[in-house]
Amino acid sequence: MSASAKNIVELCAVASDSTTSRRMLASSAKIAEISSVVEAYDLKSLWQRLTVSHDSLPDICVLYRDDSHVIELLGRIRSTPTLETLPVIIVTPQATAEDVMHAMERDADDYLVTPLVPQQLRERAHGILARRRNPSPFEAALLRGKKYIRSGEFEKAGEAFDEALQIKPTSTSALFYAGLAFEMQGDITQAEELYKEAVQHRLNLLANQRLCAIYFKQKRYQEMQPLIEILAKYVPLPASWLCLAAIHHLQSGKAGEAAKKLRQAHRAWVADPKADSYTPLDHLIQAIQTSNANPEIISVCASVCIEFERNRKLVERLDFKERVVLGSLATQVQRYSEARFFLNKALDLAPNEEARKQIHAQLAKLYKTAGVDRLAREHARIVKEA
Fold first, then answer.
1. Class of residue 19 by CB neighbours under 10 A (exposed 0-12, middle 13-18, buried 19+)
2. Which DSSP state fits 14?
3. Of 207, 239, 316, 325, which sits with the fewest C-beta atoms within 10 Å of its C-beta?
4. How far is Cα 79 from Cα 89, in angstroms, rounded to an integer?
5. Residues 367, 370, 376, CA angle at the centre, nearest 5°?
6. SS3 360
């Protein structure tokens, strides 16, 4: 077999911000004889190579998903007209649906899971290149529709995906993207039907997520529940969705499941620094008031209070009311140290003297409950003199 026959890929670029991962990718590509030349880069250097260098573009890129920066790079590649058709394989260290979904939603051509098998890498790479150079009518329609989606030509995208569905009526990918095209045009009813059909044929996390978003916006919370239970196993969810699931479990008498979802909701809020308000708060209060002192609910409320006290940067994201309410929550679960912490932090944001007076009154009551009479009297004095 000639070199040209064996290596339909002339140049392969591999990239990772981890030196170890970069070496692993380069070694695997060379062992697989995936191409005549293998170039290795960190992510910043690869981007410069693709956008600044006057050298010819690689035939294919293999990116190792160390962190979210790889997915961001893939998004930039797909949104750059001169690069949007560049074949990209994502290698992930975990065989989770979350990794796969994040890769495929940014239009990765394929994904592989470590440990990387060189022969499999070669077969996938050569298969991608063969399809790109001679795509089937279905693949050509799908690629054309995705291009229209990225350019905002949603009506044309819908026509392309409809063409793909004429060829493969049960393709979950085509059904999802057709639904997305309709959703972007404002036809939510048609989008919902296509997303439902995509979910019926096989597990499609993206379609599940879009259905949840539609149901949430329309306040169809009951219909969200089974979808949330599926999604929560694989991908991070918004705190608001998890809180709804928690209350559903609480109303069904499943306090343990409710506690689990409230804990996940708190973690989702912590992981989202752009979140304006502390979404789980009202649901934590509702849970503690209606769960008849369930120990699992008490435990999750206590752990939330403790985390805020230990990670004080989180408290800076809370407004005055949230600090006050968390102080009350901490008191209810007998976390008096954390309650004092929240109320003192509330004093920093008190909007007026009357608000400060109310906080001092709560502190006086709290110290009295905790048996610290001297401080209870001090705060009572401040209230009296105000």
1. exposed
2. E
3. 316
4. 17
5. 20
6. helix
DSSP letters along 280-338, please?
A: THHHHHHHHHHTTS-HHHHHHHHHHHHHHHH-HHHHTT--HHHHHHHHHHHHHTT-HHH
- Paired strand residues for 41: 15
CA distance 364 to 376: 4
HSE of 51, CA atoms in CB hemisphere, 13 A: 14
List pLDDT tens digits, range 47-90: 988 888 767 889 899 998 877 788 888 878 876 767 877 899 98
AA letter at 99: D
- Token pair, residue 50, equals 């693709």
Helix axes 281-290, 320-332, angle to 10 degrees: 30
Please write the tens of the pLDDT for every residue from 317-349.
999 999 999 999 999 999 999 999 999 999 999
What totals of helices (H) and strands (E) does the chain contain, helices first? 21, 5
In the chain, the N- to C-terminal Cα span, in Å, equals 92
- 300 Cβ partners below 8 Å, 6+ apart? 259, 262, 263, 266, 284, 287
- Pairing mode of beta strands 60-64, 11-15: parallel
Q: Which residue has the tokens 């298969």?
A: 127
Q: Write down the residue that tokens 């940014």 correspond to.
A: 106
> Is 71:65 a contact under the CB 8 Å cutoff?
yes
CA distance 147 to 145: 5
